């Protein structure tokens, strides 16, 4: 027993599918079968959009396009406002900020009864040999401060980097005070670099108006030479060769610094970025001194270049850099007892650190001349330590009595860098005013971010609806199909194409039904009759519903393969034909090998497979299949 299905076309052009009572195909004679009708059931195929609905679809698409444009414009304005406010906050706080982090006592260290270092939220007091020295900072991180707390202060300037500013985060201090701990951290307590990279990817994924991409480079400055840490040629044992490897620093016409030949890898996600970062770290050369067994005698620089691509609303791609720098140990050479190469290494580090101090001091004093040329480090950072950039220096100190001398040296270094913009120069009233201004700006920033948050889901929803409507229109849009057909045909083929347009074809079918007149090109030829017989033979092996459906199509035109120019027929045929096939394919019976008929490679294979009946070929919406259909139609017309 099977269900008989018949397809009818009403005068309005609607497709009706009438379902018949279950009958035995063996017992009921054909004459009875055709008259044994029950009340027709009308189904509306979801893939088929009637003409009037298509117009509505087009109207809806244009209104959604307008809405998307409007929301994007609003977001763009809010984003610009957010950028401006963030910039003001950072400038009010100081575009060069200096923090201090005090290392906790290690398990191997003896804790003195009277600790030489005491601290407040933004100051450090050193008491030693009857003297008291006080140093001010933008913020002091106590011994108990977590990696997360430190990162919290860095986060705002990462946003600034994404907004197009060059940003520099530097870890400064004596060997063994925790510079590497702060920058790299451990597996359990990741440091600033991995957290910052993760945050960049996070922020980029939430940017609905721009697409953001990143590249990464790592280099080491050792004894005044630059070494590429991500180069394929570098090996872990490259320490000896490090002095031979030198890269040139170039300045382009816009004043941007480029390092000639430096490897720049594209990082598409955090995992890849972390992998490259770890690779660079392994390659970094270290030598041994008697102060700290793993002391770094070089500066390690990690650069993330941020490309913020245009939003499609007139803005260009913005490029900015985030530098994360683990500076070499700043200890005085006498104390290390260094001789030979280690002494030279120490000298080179001290020279570059003092050049860095000079540059920062000049920038903070807003002095005309900034001595960038005095070291490789400052030459490289020239475009990232300048006026539009944001700098964050983290000074690390030891809590130990024995290190007090070094601690005072490190703190004095930063005192020079903070000389002008420090709080010390401000009266209490001015300080309060400054803090009030910062909190007002922060409030404004929060409001702007809230407004952005409200718009983003609306924009996403509008974009989703727009793409859905476009897809729906695409599947039913005859013009689109025609365009594809035209593209596939060569100009010469197009001239040969004598077939009627879809609309006139419809008319012709209707006319032939009503008047009994069949135009010459629609009368069957020997070849078409053979093909029809072949396809019917093939269809007989398929489920009954497909057989009847295909029969209806073959009846519509006796001389041509079913034309897919009628969108409704196409949608109906595609759905009705592919479902049983898919079901059969998914059953995976030995006779029918498991196939996914949506697989385009398989569809393409089928097109070239001449053993398949042509009726199968025309069921796909694949443009390649249409090419075959056009070819078939052309041949038909040339036969008549
Ligand atoms: N805030 C901290 N909390 C816990 N342990 C810390 C902290 N800071 C540093 N340490 C520990 O102190 C030791 C020295 O730290 P680290 O190697 O980071 O110093 P460094 O300044 O980078 O030294 P170098 O200049 O030789 O590279 C490490 O064992 C590290 O785990």
Automatic annotation (TrEMBL):
Gene3D superfamilies reported in the protein's UniProt record: Kinesin motor domain
SMART domains for this protein: KISc
Molecular functions per Gene Ontology: ATP binding; cytoskeletal motor activity
Membership in a protein family: Belongs to the TRAFAC class myosin-kinesin ATPase superfamily. Kinesin family. KIN-14 subfamily.
Binding site for ATP: 173-180
Organism annotation: Cardamine amara subsp. amara
Domain annotation Kinesin motor: ranges: 95-420
Keyword Nucleotide-binding recorded: yes
Protein name: Kinesin-like protein KIN-14U
Residue stretches of biased makeup (Polar residues): 603-623
Keywords per UniProt: ATP-binding, Coiled coil, Microtubule, Motor protein, Nucleotide-binding
Domain of life: Eukaryota
Pfam family, one: Kinesin
One annotated Gene Ontology cellular component of this protein: microtubule
Disordered, as annotated region: 557-623
Basic and acidic residues compositional bias, start-end: 592-602
Keyword ATP-binding listed: yes
Residues forming coiled coils: 54-81
Record-linked SUPFAM superfamilies: P-loop containing nucleoside triphosphate hydrolases
Bias kind Low complexity: ranges: 557-566
């Amino acid at each position: 027993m099977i269900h008989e299905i018949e397809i009818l076309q009403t005068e309005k052009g609607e497709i009706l599918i009438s379902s018949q009572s279950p009958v035995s195909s063996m017992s009921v004679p054909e004459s009875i079968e055709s008259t044994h009708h029950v009340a027709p059931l009308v189904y509306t195929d979801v893939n088929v959009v009637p003409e009037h609905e298509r117009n509505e679809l087009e109207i809806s698409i244009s209104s959604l396009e307008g809405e998307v444009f409007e929301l994007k414009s609003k977001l763009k304005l809010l984003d610009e406002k957010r950028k401006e406010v963030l910039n003001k906050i950072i400038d009010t706080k100081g575009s060069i900020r200096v923090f201090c982090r005090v290392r906790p006592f290690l398990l191997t260290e003896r804790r003195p009864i009277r600790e030489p270092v005491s601290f407040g939220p933004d100051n450090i007091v050193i008491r030693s040999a009857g003297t008291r020295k006080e140093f001010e900072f933008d913020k002091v991180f106590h011994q108990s401060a977590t990696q997360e707390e430190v990162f919290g202060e860095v986060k705002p300037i990462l946003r600034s980097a994404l907004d197009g500013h060059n940003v520099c985060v530097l870890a400064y201090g004596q060997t063994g005070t925790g510079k590497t701990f702060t920058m790299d951290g451990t597996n359990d307590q990741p440091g600033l670099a991995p957290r910052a990279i993760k945050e960049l990817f996070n922020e980029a994924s939430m940017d609905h108006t721009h697409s953001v991409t990143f590249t990464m480079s790592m280099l080491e400055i050792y004894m005044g030479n630059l070494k590429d840490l991500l180069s394929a040629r570098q090996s872990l044992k490259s320490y000896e060769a490090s002095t031979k490897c030198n890269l040139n620093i170039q300045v382009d016409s816009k004043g941007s610094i480029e390092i000639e030949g430096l490897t720049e890898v594209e990082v598409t996600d955090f995992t890849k970025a972390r992998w490259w970062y770890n690779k660079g770290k392994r390659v970094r050369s270290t030598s041994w001194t008697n102060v700290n067994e793993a002391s770094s005698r070089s500066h390690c620089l990690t650069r993330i270049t941020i490309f913020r691509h245009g939003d499609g609303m007139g803005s260009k791609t913005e490029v900015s850099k985030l530098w994360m720098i683990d500076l070499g140990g700043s200890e005085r050479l006498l104390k290390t007892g260094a001789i030979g190469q280690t002494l030279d290494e120490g000298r080179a580090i001290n020279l570059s650190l003092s050049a860095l101090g000079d540059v920062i001091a000049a920038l903070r004093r807003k002095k005309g001349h900034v001595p960038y040329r005095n070291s490789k480090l400052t030459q490289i950072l020239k475009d990232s330590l300048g006026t539009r950039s944001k700098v964050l220096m983290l000074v690390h100190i030891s809590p130990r009595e024995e290190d007090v001398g070094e601690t005072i040296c490190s703190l004095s270094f930063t005192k020079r860098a903070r000389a002008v913009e420090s709080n010390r120069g401000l009266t209490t009233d001015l300080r309060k005013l400054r803090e009030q201004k910062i909190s007002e700006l922060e409030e404004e920033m929060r409001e702007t971010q809230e407004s952005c948050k409200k718009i983003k889901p609306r924009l996403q929803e509008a974009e989703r609806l727009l793409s859905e409507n476009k897809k729906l229109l695409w599947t039913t849009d005859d013009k689109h199909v025609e365009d594809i057909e035209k593209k596939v045909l060569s100009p010469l083929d197009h001239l040969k194409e004598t077939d009627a347009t879809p609309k006139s074809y419809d008319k012709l079918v209707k006319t032939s039904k009503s008047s009994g007149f069949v135009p010459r090109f629609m009368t069957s030829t020997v070849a078409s009759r053979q093909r029809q017989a072949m396809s019917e033979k093939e269809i007989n092996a398929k489920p009954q519903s497909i057989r009847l459906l295909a029969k209806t199509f073959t009846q519509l035109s006796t001389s041509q393969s079913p034309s897919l120019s009628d969108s409704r027929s196409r949608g109906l045929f595609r759905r009705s034909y592919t479902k049983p096939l898919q079901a059969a394919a998914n059953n995976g019976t030995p006779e029918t090998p498991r196939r996914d008929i949506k697989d385009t490679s398989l569809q393409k294979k089928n097109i070239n497979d001449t053993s398949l009946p042509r009726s199968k070929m025309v069921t796909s919406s694949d443009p390649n299949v249409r090419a075959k259909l056009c070819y078939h139609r052309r041949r038909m017309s040339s036969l008549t």
